[in-house]
Design brief:
By secondary structure, the protein is mostly helical. Helices cover 74% and strands 0% of the residues. It is found in: Endomembrane system.
């Protein structure tokens, strides 16, 4: 069952790019972001009520608000970048998040970052740079892919803040009510820009559009729970390998559904930062592993 839950979470995350891209012609970024949180809260709330019969949310904790702010930044910039760029572009969020978590571990929590950690961070940065560059001349880079890379960088930093909040909150809250508290606040935070949005669309929203928005909400609400339950049941190595495979699936779906060009630079950069993930999660018999990836889990 653990492997099924892990695969469900991995596949759910891999579909985010194509789902956001497919609905971006019908609604603007503010509505996509709001829907990801709103429907996520609905489905997560239903799950908790069925399982525990009541909600135990907490809004007085500082890390709940920091996590909500971080996740809001993550979704706002990720959706914006996917809308103007490629559907697979959100593969950049994960390596940026990893680097930000390693930096935070050393700066905020005074934890020693090992040579293995810095090596992994370097590989992640190199991979992001290669994918962001994608062989474009400098003028094209500044005008197009450079902007989307910057947006995904902001999204990755926001995601890292959310992970840091989970790391602190899991000490005093269960994962369901923790995510419910964070996502509910996020729903209100991202609702603010909606009245000022452009609401531009090239086609009216249809049944498929609503289905996509609901699916994005399900991913927000339930994938984190699937992942949390999975890591209790499967080996850490399996979590590292299967969890990071969402990057490869994201590239595959973008090619199959939108025929987006997958260049050698994208493949090469992906291989480099995946190597960084493997280095970061590599276990040695003589040492206990303590990484940002484990903190996220």
């Amino acid at each position: 069952m653990g492997y099924v839950l892990l695969l469900l979470a991995t596949l759910a995350w891999s579909f985010v790019g194509v789902l956001v891209k497919s609905v971006s012609t019908m609604v603007d970024n503010s509505w996509i972001t709001f829907s990801r949180f709103f429907f996520g809260v609905v489905f997560l709330g239903i799950y908790i009520l069925i399982k525990d019969k009541r909600l135990r949310m907490r809004f007085s904790l500082r890390w709940v608000w920091l996590g909500a702010a971080g996740k809001s930044v993550n979704y706002i910039f990720e959706n914006m970048a996917i809308t103007i760029g490629y559907a697979y572009g959100n593969i950049l969020v994960q390596p940026v998040q990893t680097v930000a978590l390693l930096a935070a571990s050393g700066i905020l929590f005074k934890e020693r970052v090992t040579a293995k950690g810095w090596s992994a961070a370097a590989l992640c940065v190199i991979g992001v740079i290669v994918i962001g560059w994608n062989g474009h001349p400098l003028n094209e880079l500044l005008a197009g892919s450079g902007l989307t890379t910057l947006l995904f960088t902001f999204a990755g930093i926001g995601a890292a803040i959310h992970v840091l909040s989970q790391r602190q909150l899991v000490k005093s809250m269960d994962s369901g009510n923790m995510n419910m508290s964070v996502f509910l606040i996020s729903t209100f935070l991202v609702a603010g820009p909606i009245p000022f949005g452009t609401h531009s669309a090239t086609e009216p929203i249809n049944a498929w559009g609503w289905t996509v928005l609901i699916l994005l909400g399900i991913i927000t609400g339930l994938s984190f729970l699937w992942f949390a339950e999975a890591i209790k049941r499967v080996s850490f190595t399996a979590v590292a390998v299967v969890g990071n495979s969402s990057v490869l699936f994201s590239i595959l779906w973008s090619y199959l559904f939108f025929h987006e060009p997958i260049t050698g630079y994208v493949i090469g950069g992906t291989v480099v930062f995946l190597a960084g993930f493997l280095v970061l999660n590599m276990r040695f018999p003589s040492k206990a592993v303590h990484t940002a990836g484990k903190a996220e889990a």
